[in-house]
Amino acid sequence: MEGKETREEMEKSGMIDTWMRKHRLIYTGATKHPFILSIRDGTVDFEAFKTWLGQDYIFVRAFAPFVASVLIKAWKESDDSSEMEVILSSMASLNDEIAWFKSEAAKWGVQLSEVVPQKANQDYCRFLESLMSPDVEYTVAITAFWAIEAVYQASFALCLEDGSKTPAKLREACRRWGNDGFGQYCNSLQKIANRHLGKTPDDVLTKAEVTLLRVLEHEVEFWNMSHGAA
Ligand SMILES: Cc1ncc(CN)c(N)n1
């Protein structure tokens, strides 16, 4: 009999997969955005890429304290010590990521100290800050964390697929998030999120789903900001 999936049925495949099916349209909007498709088909406007680069540097600086807040929640709320290690590895790579943004900006002639955060970026950073509150459950925060990373992984992996015409100058940027190692790290985050979603009360489950949708909307707005600014 067809109908709504029960919670037990959803948990069998993992809540994240269920939500990805349920919210396919917005997930595709975030991972196959026209900006990403323009990189993939080689028609990208390099000014748009430079806008993205400067804005994302600001975002990543706000993302690092968010990841730190997830680490604190894992330390307090998780019963599996390996989760802290996954989150810690992410913190270590953020250090590399900030260094990469600085050297990439120098190559493209983007003065990072002069970049002013645009509204979509400010809104997204404010949203991240709201998730840092100790009142936000670990399950909700780890779901958001997975979604933020997974959108970049899926988007940039698309630009590396066979047949893509990604300009040589942008391939390194795409490899940063589109490589297999980053994919495996996203799978680890997804497993952690699924494990906690599978045992959380219904009200927290609803909060996590709403938070996931907010992340996807912010990601779309973030791409729009870069794409529209050319
Ligand atoms: C907007 C955005 N979203 C996600 C990521 C991947 N950490 C990022 N760097 N920037």
From TrEMBL:
It comes from the Eukaryota. One of its GO terms (biological process) is thiamine biosynthetic process. Pathway: Cofactor biosynthesis; thiamine diphosphate biosynthesis. GO terms for molecular function: thiaminase activity. The keyword Hydrolase applies. This is aminopyrimidine aminohydrolase. Belongs to the thiaminase-2 family. InterPro entries: Haem_Oase-like_multi-hlx (IPR016084), Thiaminase-2/PQQC (IPR004305), Thiamine_Salvage_TenA (IPR050967). GO terms for cellular component: cytosol. Residues 21-226 form the Thiaminase-2/PQQC domain. Keywords: Disulfide bond, Hydrolase, Thiamine biosynthesis. CDD domains: TenA_E_At3g16990-like. SUPFAM superfamilies: Heme oxygenase-like (SSF48613). It comes from Lithocarpus litseifolius. Its EC number is 3.5.99.2. It catalyses: N-formyl-4-amino-5-aminomethyl-2-methylpyrimidine + H2O = 4-amino-5-aminomethyl-2-methylpyrimidine + formate; 4-amino-5-aminomethyl-2-methylpyrimidine + H2O = 4-amino-5-hydroxymethyl-2-methylpyrimidine + NH4(+). The keyword Disulfide bond applies.
